[in-house]
From TrEMBL:
<protein>
    <submittedName>
        <fullName>PbsX family transcriptional regulator</fullName>
    </submittedName>
</protein>
<dbReference type="InterPro" id="IPR039052">
    <property type="entry name" value="Antitox_PemI-like"/>
</dbReference>
<dbReference type="InterPro" id="IPR037914">
    <property type="entry name" value="SpoVT-AbrB_sf"/>
</dbReference>
<dbReference type="GO" id="GO:0097351">
    <property type="term" value="F:toxin sequestering activity"/>
</dbReference>
Amino acid sequence: MQKAALSVDDTVEIAVEEGRIIITPVKAVEYSLENLLAGITPENIHEKVDFGARTGKELI
């Protein structure tokens, strides 16, 4: 597994090509808050969502 740069519990994609099993590591996409916020536009922003009254344990 070291030669394949894999560890136990890594996420992989498995495919069969020409009778061969191909195992490819799936790399997690990392997002930054700055990039996510930059993608908000007046066209894709949603309305405020009301989740009801506080139950007393929410952060303010």
